[in-house]
Design brief:
Elements: H1 2-18, H2 21-48
Helix pairs in contact: 1-2
Keywords: Cell membrane, Membrane, Transmembrane, Transmembrane helix
Organism: Rubritalea spongiae
Protein name: DUF1328 domain-containing protein
Length: 49
């Protein structure tokens, strides 16, 4: 999940530089969601051990 969050963040940054605001906003939102899911799964994983 962290890998996908980083990929979407890079896509958002590139889209923002090129002037595609809608795509950049969408990619940034997906990156945030992926990062939150990663954090939740990481915390659950650490608590199980």
């Amino acid at each position: 999940m962290l890998r996908y969050a980083i990929i979407f963040l890079v896509v958002a940054l590139i889209a923002a530089v090129l002037g595609f605001g809608g795509i950049a906003g969408t990619a940034a939102g997906i990156a945030k969601i992926c990062f939150v899911v990663f954090l939740v799964l990481a915390v659950i994983s650490f608590l199980k051990k």
